[in-house]
Design brief:
The chain is of the alpha/beta class and 573 residues long. The chain folds into 3 domains: 258 residues, P-loop containing nucleotide triphosphate hydrolases (Rossmann fold); 80 residues, no CATH class; 179 residues, no CATH class. The strands form 4 sheets. Strands 1, 2, 4, 5, 6 and 7 form a 6-stranded antiparallel sheet that branches. A 6-stranded mixed sheet has the order 8-11-12-3-13-14, sandwiched between helices. The radius of gyration is 33 Å and the shape is globular. The chain starts with a strand and ends in a 5-residue tail after the last helix. 34% of the residues are buried.
Length: 573
């Protein structure tokens, strides 16, 4: 069974959200947008015992809409998990027969299951109560003959949850939730156990007896029997190794060979290696557990918080490809652009806040042409996955703007990372960057276009006009410069500085070649760019001069664009 949708109301930081899920879903977004809350909601529903009337929700699980709200007067918590077939007859008959009346058949012949959990404060009992039920297609509660389907849900859709806060020393310890399962399964027949323990005692005696001093230590410690009660027969034993299978199993460690061949216990390796080992342990536990405990019809849900923790970027990218091929349904909450670069763009769900409510964006294939998706992959997902975590995109036409604008924001007092914006160049992108605008709208990323005042800029502006939201004006999403960014600075008291970058000989040539002032300015700027080694170098030189002059030297048009980006991004974080 695949979980195709989760609906959450009034649970922790989420007031209301209905999120569609795929076989692989990667949830991204800023902190406190609800990524972990979604995974916790699924965990809450599928990992709890059913039928108890007392509340499994805590006071802090209820969404408090304002400072005067309390859990006692908060709106009820509702979590609905929606399972469904992807195609007719996907679910085996044995599953449908066991789940019986909770399977709802739609007009297209697909089976659905809606599983609902409710949490509410009951004033008559002065306590929190939790209830579980199944729904029909209209959202009404199904009246079941018995409670069997409640237990079958966790059987056919078992949840395996891996928290972001994972410690390899704990996970591979005797009480680790995954590792302990393997240790407990080690059971030797009595005859074999006795034989192994006899061999262990012999090995232990050989090691201890090799140093007569150790024997003396044991005798000395035995004298403690004068003060505390000890067994009179052989009260002290020294063990170089465990001499019982039970003890030996409890001390099993994972050793890994380093690149130069040295074998070291896992806890002696780096945090990244340890974190990756926990992920592999998790996968092994799921595979073995499914084979031993669950029915063949079971389809696991693997929920992972920040699987990229402590990993090197190349390891994270490999992990992204690996996760796509894991069996079962995989749900991930991530902060990693490297991981995003290796999963399909359609698998992403970007969470963001709008007027205090949690919203999500996703890419639907029918919105884009194949060429547009290729352009998005080449220019963003595969190479700059971190762009997808930005609040706002500034779309620019050329290299000069791409290199200059982040530095100009900083001069204006708005560092790029504080505002959380990215600059994307669109001149080499199909349809003058239109796929970027469509992608931003799909994912809920704010955007603004800075265009040159030429035919290319006019084309960009026309594409912007096609994607304005209801009630928006063109000025809300785009602005054309006087000509280009270099001319903006020229006309804002930078003309002498730019002219000073070229030789006197070239100045005289320009004076003799120019037919009008406009052409003269263009030739001086082009010559200055060529003299310093191209547009990126010219951009750096111009920014360096702007830093010395201060923010008041930034052209008014550029300041307007910066202020608009800051507004769209929601101001300083």
């Amino acid at each position: 069974m695949q979980l195709i949708e989760i609906k959450i109301e009034n649970f922790r930081g989420i007031r209301s959200l209905t999120l569609p899920l795929d076989r692989l879903t990667v949830i991204i977004g800023e902190n406190n947008t609800g990524k972990s809350t979604i995974l916790e909601a699924i965990k809450f529903v599928l990992s709890r015992g059913f039928g108890a009337r007392r509340s499994a929700f805590s006071d802090y699980d209820f969404h408090l809409k304002d400072i005067n709200s309390t859990p006692q007067n908060a709106e009820p918590i509702t979590i609905i998990l929606h399972f469904a077939e992807n195609y007719v007859d996907e679910w085996p008959d044995s599953l449908i027969q066991q789940l019986g009346e909770i399977c709802q058949l739609d007009p297209e012949g697909l089976h659905h299951i809606w599983f609902k959990v409710n949490g509410i404060f009951q004033h008559n009992t002065a306590g929190f109560e939790t209830s579980w039920c199944f729904l029909n297609q209209t959202g009404d509660e199904l009246r079941l003959k018995n409670a069997t389907p409640l237990n079958l849900i966790s059987k056919f859709a078992p949840l395996f949850f891996l928290s972001a806060l994972r410690d390899a020393s704990q996970e591979f310890g005797q009480r680790g939730p995954f590792w302990s399962g393997f240790l407990k399964s080690i059971q030797l027949p009595d005859e074999q156990r006795e034989q192994v323990e006899g061999m262990l005692r012999e090995i232990n005696a050989s090691v201890i007896n090799s140093n007569i001093g150790l024997t003396e230590v044991a005798k000395t410690i035995a004298d403690a029997g004068q003060f505390v009660p000890l067994n009179v027969d052989d009260p002290v034993s020294l063990e170089a190794i465990p001499t019982r299978v039970f003890d030996m199993v409890g001390k099993i460690q994972v050793f890994l060979k380093s690149s130069h061949g040295t074998k070291l216990p896992l806890h002696r390796h780096g945090e990244g290696t340890q974190s990756l080992a926990v992920l592999m342990l998790f996968q092994a536990f799921v595979a073995v557990n499914l084979a031993e405990v669950y029915a063949p019809e079971s389809r696991p849900i693997l929920a992972l918080e920040e699987p990229e923790a402590h990993l090197h970027p190349s390891a994270i990218r490999s992990l992204g490809s690996f996760l796509e091929n894991i069996s079962g349904q995989v749900l991930i909450a991530s902060h990693s652009g490297d991981l995003v670069s290796r999963v399909p763009i359609m698998a992403l769900r970007r969470l963001y806040k709008h007027d205090g409510d949690t919203k999500f964006g996703q890419v639907e294939s029918e919105t884009f042409t194949e060429q547009e998706l290729q352009s998005i992959d080449c220019n963003i997902r595969l190479t700059k996955g971190h762009y997808l975590f930005s609040r706002c995109w500034l779309l620019v036409e050329g290299v000069s703007e791409f290199h200059m604008m982040p530095a100009i924001f900083e001069i204006m007092g708005y560092p790029q990372d504080h505002i959380n914006f990215s600059v994307l160049e669109v001149s080499q992108v199909v349809n003058k960057g239109e796929p970027f605008i469509k992608l931003a709208n799909s994912l809920g990323i704010q955007w603004f276009l800075m265009a040159d005042n030429d035919s290319g800029g006019d084309s960009c502006i026309r594409h912007v006009s096609n994607h304005l939201l209801p009630g928006e004006n063109l000025s809300d999403r785009a602005l054309q410069l006087q000509l280009d960014i270099e001319h903006e600075f020229w006309h804002n008291e930078y003309h002498e500085y730019i002219t000073g970058l070229i030789s006197n000989r070239r100045k005289r040539q320009i004076e003799s070649e120019s037919t009008n002032e406009t052409e003269k300015i263009q030739l001086i700027i082009k010559s200055a760019i060529k003299k310093v080694g191209g547009k990126p170098a010219f951009a750096q030189i111009l920014v360096r001069e702007a830093r010395q002059r201060g923010k008041d030297s930034i052209p008014r048009t550029i300041q307007d664009i910066i202020n608009r980006i800051v507004y769209l991004a929601g101001g300083l974080t």
